[in-house]
Amino acid sequence: YHFLTEKHECQWTDALTATFGVDGCDADTSTVVTSLDVYENGYAGSIPTEIAHLSSLHSLRFIGTDLKGEVPTEIGSIAGLMFLSITNNGRGLTGPIPTQLGQLTGLMGLWLHGHSLTGPIPEELGALTNLRWLSLRDNVLTGTVPETFKDLTSASSIELNLNELEGSVDFLCDANLTGLETLNVDRVAVECECCTCCDDSEKTEEDDRTMLIEDIVKGLSDSVSLSNSSSAQSRALQWLIHDDDAVIPPEDVERVKQRYTLAVLYFSGNGEQWTEDGYHFLTEKHECQWTDALTATFGVDGCDADTSTVVTSLDVYENGYAGSIPTEIAHLSSLHSLRFIGTDLKGEVPTEIGSIAGLMFLSITNNGRGLTGPIPTQLGQLTGLMGLWLHGHSLTGPIPEELGALTNLRWLSLKDNVLTGTVPETFNDLS
């Protein structure tokens, strides 16, 4: 995290933050903190009220931490906040939902589920007319659903189930909420004629599994992608919850992450059209067996794993892969070999690859010249890298001087691109 180091406070962060905004803080080009995300890092305690002085925040997330106390009312003063997610935190948050959150008129996503929050749902939340996603489920909220919710005209998902609410939400059925796709309440106590998934009984084991997997995945992909039903991320999540015959329990967090990430890869690369039958992707097999028969020896055509069933090698080789390299690939944090050879790649080299600390071989070659943009400076963080092949693309800009830090590098190929400028003098250090 680099907290309390001499680095600029916008570099007190995980390497993934530049895109995902996870595990630290991110900033715009003026070095003002605009995103703060605390994700499964051992954080234990309360949310300090001083957080409101980060007045340029547009995203604030606490996920998988050990929170105590109440939601600070001061958060309601962060005028530009667009996403507020405080979830999967051990049910330690108590007290009411602050009425001041109704001042956040630019808010698009509000997730406060899985706590011990009490009292009524504030009617002030009805002022959040830009809100698309609202989840207050699985708390101890009482009273009725505010009629002001009929003004949530941008809402696509409202989840209020697993509380102690009563009354009726039929006024929402009659409201002009044309984009509303999900409306969940407890139908035992709350009348609803249009709910999409009402709980007639106590929470089921399947409900628990769905919520926990969603919480895990929200820490891996951005909310915009997950809310787009046609995106690779959304399709991977829905497959993992509803169609995966392996039915991975959410308690096995690392396997959920690993399986989801590989499913994102499948859907990002037009997996339905892959030419090889031996890949076994999206089957009930362990994801380390989603592979060609050669993988055990050569590590090609799929993914290989060490004896602890952690993916350490991922190779996509002339299989009809067509699309971009998903940024989520960085969550395969134990990779030592990553290769895309003979595919139809588009887009840029993800900067997030620079966070895979143990990577030794990175080869993205012979891919139809579809890769564009710069060579990420973050690749210079891969100090254990022994081979880097990025030839035969349309990469532009200068060669990053940061690559000179790769003192273990034996093979480097950047040929056949559109690189400009001079060869960095730091290459003197490629001993």
Can you characterise this structure?
- The protein has 431 residues and is of the alpha/beta class.
- It has a domain at 42-203: Leucine-rich repeat, LRR (right-handed beta-alpha superhelix) (Alpha-Beta Horseshoe), CATH 3.80.10.10.
- Helices cover 14% and strands 20% of the residues.
- The protein contains seven helices and 24 strands.
- Helix 5 packs across helix 6 (253-268).
- The model is unreliable at 15-23 and 293-301 (pLDDT under 50).
- It comes from Pseudictyota dubia.
- It is found in: Cell envelope.
Largest sheet: 8 strands, mixed
Number of helices: 7
CATH hierarchy, class of the domain at 42-203: Alpha Beta
What is the alpha-carbon Rg in Å?
23 Å
> Mean pLDDT score, rounded?
85
Coarse morphology? globular
- Annotated CATH homologous superfamily of the domain at 42-203: Ribonuclease Inhibitor
Helix content: 10-25%
Looking across the biggest beta sheet, what order are the strands in? 1-2-4-6-7-9-11-13
Beta-strand residue percentage: 15-25%
Which structural class do the helices and strands define? alpha/beta
Pfam families: LRR_14
Organism: Pseudictyota dubia
Keywords: Leucine-rich repeat, Repeat
Main location: other
